[in-house]
Amino acid sequence: MALLPILRYPDPRLHTRAAPVHEVNDEIRQLVADMAETMYEAPGIGLAATQVNVHQRVVVIDTSEDKSALLALINPEIIARSGEQVCEEGCLSVPGIYDKVSRSETVRVRALDQHGKTFELDAEGLLAVCIQHELDHLEGKVFVEYLSQLKQTRIKGKLAKKARITA
Ligand code: GNR
Ligand code: NI
Predict the structure, then answer these.
(1) For residue 165, what are the CA distances in angstroms to 65, 94, 158?
(2) pLDDT tens digits for 121-147?
(3) Which of 59, 32, 36, 42 lies closest to 8 in space, CA to CA?
(4) Rounded CA separation 140/12 (Å)
(5) pLDDT at 61 over 90
(6) Which of 70, 71, 132, 153 shows its CA 20 to 30 Å from the CA of 57?
(7) Is the CB of 46 under 6 A from ligand 1?
(8) Is position 134 annotated as part of the catalytic site?
């Protein structure tokens, strides 16, 4: 197992569109394990491969309180959605920044599991938010892009200042 470094906004590599996984093999299973370790250590409730500079369609999520519900989604697709909810979001690639984003209330997702088997999952609430947030990462989209240009400029300034202090 290994902890992977997480890219920080506004790193241009966060805007890469991830490619589909062609074969769920040991290399992908190792990536899932390393991403899970990185997510739990952060700590966060989700992590997309894009955030660790691997541009393949792999996501890990665990919205449980006790790290008991690891979900690995490979080549995930949202096949149905309904309703609307507004959630205060954060992102491990945009540390210390939280703001409201409007998303679908429920989603049905189809994905491959760690054995390459297709499954479907119905999600609502925070899990549905997290799935949409992670699928956006695979498309090269960071949640702050839903905010106003003024807010995005302020966030870039804040993170640049913090990067100077911590460098
Ligand atoms: O840890 C995370 N928390 C979170 C809270 C509200 C909405 C979305 C998220 S996802 C985030 C981890 C992350 O950056 N995943 O890409
Ligand atoms: Ni994120």
Answers:
(1) 32, 16, 11
(2) 999 999 999 999 999 999 999 999 999
(3) 42
(4) 9
(5) yes
(6) 153
(7) yes
(8) yes
